[in-house]
Amino acid sequence: MNKPHVPVEARRAFTIVGQSVRRNDVLEKVTGEGLYTADINRPGLLFGKIKRSNVAHAKISRIDTSKALALLGVKAVLTHEDVPRFLHYGSPHPRSASCTRDQYILDDKVRFWGEGIAAVAATSEEIADEALDLIEVDYEELPGVFDIDSAQAPGAPLIHEVGPGSNLVLPPVRVERGDVENGFAEADFVLEGVFEGGRPVPAYMEPNVCMADWDGSNKLTFWTSTQTAFMVRGSLAEVLGLPLNKVRVLVDHMGGGFGAKQDLFQHEYLCALLARQTRRPVRMEFTRAETFIAGRSRHPCRILLKQGFRKDGTICARDMKIIYESGAYGSHSPGVTTVGTNAATSLYRCENVRLEGCAVYTNTPIAGAFRGYGVVQAYYALDIQMDEAAERLGMDPAELKLKNAVREGDIAPSGHPIVGRGLEACLKHGITAFDWIAKRTETPRNDPAQPAIRRGWGVGCEMHGSSAYPGIREQGNATVKMNEDGSVTLLTGAAGLGTGAHTALAQIVAEELGVTFESVSVVHGDTDVVPWDIGAFASHTTYLVGSAAKIAAGKLRAAVLARAAEKLQTPTEALDMVAGRIFIADAPDRGLTVADAMGPSKGIPADHLIETGSYTPTKSYSFAAHFVEVAVDIETGLVDVRHVMPVHDVGRVIHPIAAAGQIEGGIQQGIGHTLTEDYLIDRTNGRSLNAGLVDYKMPLSMDMPKIETVILEAAPDPGGPWGAKGVGEDPIIAIGPAIANAIHDAIGARFHHYPITPEDILCALAAQKKE
Amino acid sequence: MRRFEYHEPASLAEASELLLCLGEGAFVFAGGTDLLVEIRERLRRVHHIVNIKRIPGLDELMISAEGGIWFGALVTAGRIERSSEIARLYPNLHDAVRNLGSIQVRNRATVVGNICRASPSADTIPPLVADSAEIEIFGPGGTRRTALAEFFTGPGRTTLSRGEIATGIRVPPPAEGSGRVYLKHGRRKAMELATVGVAVSLNRSRGTCSDISIALGAVGPTVLRAPKAEAMLRGAVLSPEMISAAANQAMAECTPISNVRSSADYRRAMVGVLTRRAVTRALEATA
Q1: Does residue B17 sit in the same domain as residue B37?
Q2: What pLDDT, on the 0 to 100 scale, is given for residue A11?
């Protein structure tokens, strides 16, 4: 990992915030001592497996489990006839607008190839697998729809009885500002394009896994790899008819989620039911193939984008229609559609906008929440069209983007005024640091040493909200305890997906409290113990839970100082606390350690100081501009991303290396989305064509470019701790259009889709030759 | 993992006998990097595993400029990769093993295993075919030796009959003034299966290309030679135009399919590009 460049501005004298302290979970991770859900064992453990359909759309006319049940070692088999018929959200935000209530635990109808239709618990995985083959199923096949067009064609077969009909997941989202007709009338020219996005999957390292165990009091203990432990608790309790205090959800280490692990994936309910029926613990773990088939992808999409421009580069009208393909269930489609559609109001200023967003059911695997949540698609189109406008205008694209960059006071997609001038700062910094103008204007596209190579440079921009407001009114909570030896315990419900969130939270607590980073330990991942948390998503953990932790730590600091003031016999206001030592600010020699202040003395027991912080945010926006160099081999069509300079405004960076890690990871995923990754579905029968990491091509370490990360603290947001904003989702958004724009710069071919394959490049070059 | 019987013969004769008796469902285990995955993914019905790692002599690797290479069935891709002599004398084979799977896989996988798997896209096969390697086989009828180019009968199929075990590979010594190149084409720089692989080995004497062989991977049911393209270049003073013409001929000689990795048209086009590049580089290497 390259150390990111963080230009130093005038700032409060931080001692822990802004330092890349050693992560508090790093030893467990690198030594293999860290426990992931699949590492946890129980005596008498059974292994659960799901039988999956081999048709895409059908009624189950008969399902016979007798042979499977007769197999030695099989302890239970469940079909739709054996499980509660409860219509649930799948994605656990039952009271929010993000999700769709359209799933049963098991149904007598199949809506996509690979949907779970039965579940087995057996004494070994092999026996469970064998039992799956022994379950006999007869289907009455139904005609299927496998793309947006056939799903929306008149008379298309309906996939769901619920919802607004016409295979729509939700009524179209419409946003209108200003006067679009008038805006187009004033335009000097109009650009119009159709953009299409593929089906990348998050491909988290740890496949979905859970384990269920019921105790004698009918309480369910449930280990799972989830970003949203309390939502899993809520959904399991709701579906199983239990009070919340009879479901305990545990999650320790996690191998990624990228948004997708906000959902429940069918196996959670089945695992709990199999365990209840057998009275034995049951574990279910997805194969890698199942993480594709039964996981959640980004929504494939089609975008019709039309914008009117004036000669000076002003955008006078924007008309966009975006259609997201939801797959067989709604999952996060309402949230994705709303956020993605609204995103197009912003980034590049335009007073007259008319936007429509739809999500359409098809008989394909489910699209859900995934890093960049609908915005990746919208800004891919928007940013590429800006590049086209610059070309038409004879302007430098970075200059045109800078001219139109959203800024202080503009209305953000959430309806709030934007704070600061973050996007302009990112663009300006990158133009200079990347030597953008010289690269674009003075460097030959041909490389004499490599005759088949054409070089090109591109820039892409993005903004993304921290927190899901206004879609969800969120709350972050933290409990901070001061122990009598001066050590501190933070209890948080925030999940640690692998991002380093718990380290950042401990840094915030230590900084605010005035103790060392090492003296703060973090308790997390146990819904019976930690304060309620909405889950780790929407780039909000540092912003939202960080603020709650800061509030709690601030209260605790006051309480500790009050106790020390008694002992020192000075007013509290005279005291300061740094690195676990309390002293009189004007006479720093006079002081005592936190342990001395807290500990027992002469028959007076130690104080028990516990404080909590609750925080309900609105929203802040982070910004980024990615500057990219590519090399295109015009004979093979291979695109090599050689150099990326991501410039991000995150308001206030808590842990620079962790933030840079998020950025580098986002770039890696974004390169994959743009060039190589696409989960392919046979559009004639709904079958998965590349459900595995052999033929689903993620870029790996050898494919990574030189990355020079720049983190700016240009536009701190008052809603986050010391102005900190989110960074999780941002880096995956700007890289895509930056690459597409750089390819255009290299070979003069414009692409309106992703992934851009070598064959696409060769076709475009062949078409150029014909012209 | 499914249940299977495990056998550990101490000699080739014992191993061959076992394979003969156990019949279908018995498989030789050396590196296991394909076999174990196939068992786990239920792609192959395996009832018996015959581990040949206890058989002496199969882990030998001999390399010299005069004698060429001989390596046994237990020699891993990693050992070939780390041989500086092979890197110097057979850069084509070195490049093939260097780009095979991951480091961990290369430390387990055997080259003979990669060959016996008979995948049309196997990286090690094109350079060995281009270098006229021979495969040695032990069986109930004794020992036989066959040209590697004639060993394959289809995807996953070879001339090995029941009870036969491939024991090693012999590669002739490199001729004076020869150049050899293997080019692999894929979407990733590592951990990749070849979309197309092209190996070219050529000899130059007194300014002409005295001999050449072109082997094409992943564009037919087995690794293919391109005899007509070779004939266009054999005995000639190579010019860029001739090389391009031969590359076009190679495109006509391959029989690619379309699948999720690539269309047939793209594979064919890459045969042209890679053949031209490989011949050019092999020629440069002779200088």
Answers
A1: yes
A2: 46
